[in-house]
Design brief:
Layout lengths: L56 E2 L1 E5 L2 E5 L7 E3 L14 H5 L7 E2 L10 E5 L5 E5 L2 E4 L19 E3 L12 E2 L1 E5 L2 E5 L7 E3 L14 H5 L7 E2 L10 E5 L5 E5 L2 E2 L21 E3 L5
Parallel strand pairs: 1-5, 10-14
Antiparallel strand pairs: 2-3, 4-8, 4-9, 6-7, 7-8, 11-12, 13-18, 15-16, 16-17
Length: about 280
Amino acid sequence: MMRHSGWVAAALIAVALAVSACGAGSGSSAGGAYGYGTQTTQATQAAPSSPSSVSTVALKTETTRAGTVLADNHGLTLYYYSADKRGSGKSVCTGGCATAWPPLAAPVKAPAGVRLPGPLGIITRPGGLRQVTINGLPIYLYAGDKAPGQETGNGMAGSWHVIKIHATAAAGRGAALKVSHTRVGPVLASSHGRTLYYYSADKRHSGKSACTGTCATAWPPLAAPVKAPAGVRLPGKLGVITRPGGLKQVTLNGYPLYFYIGDKTAGQVTGAGVGGAWHVIKIKA
């Protein structure tokens, strides 16, 4: 069972990213551009498909403090730019803008079991790069995001936005959690193998999280729904609380669960013991 380590004030500093973003274009806005409709993958908008030796990779969904969002095959968050004109067949993010916001290159396919907010398509950029679009808007990465689950570009200049995946669009009852083998022993991890933590400053069964603001940037909440790993006895029952803003966060034994942005790959536990307040969930063999 998890033991409450007492109230500890953890001073958490969010990583400041120095990558500059290009400002909005002519003032045009794509607000509300993402309407949910029938998904068609591999749709072509501005350039015909051509044979390629490049493998088609599947996109992913990632849990972030903004909710469940669309990500590339490495788990890095994807964005659209409201200065782009939907269905225009071109991107207004070029030059230095495209350095900070690299275009998502084709070909890709939708994540299994996920309904995207519009059909996938392709445009051809100056120079010949084929860029993926969704619902007519070009899609980008952000150079400031260094690890899966980060969305530091969201809201940049009021023009850059994540692509949210509605909970109803995700498959089934949620992905199964895993047991990850680490230097501190077997611990509970997300479906992607990233270590999960609880925070001793949270009050068990309080129905809320004490980790907000910059704390939640460093320690993103684990979003519901999830299910227990097959054949594993967890140290308590899974539950759900609703955070300010509406994100539903998973709890275990009454404690909200979190990731740590310092963990870059599965099996890392760099957040264990931070501030004397952050702890892994050990699983008995």
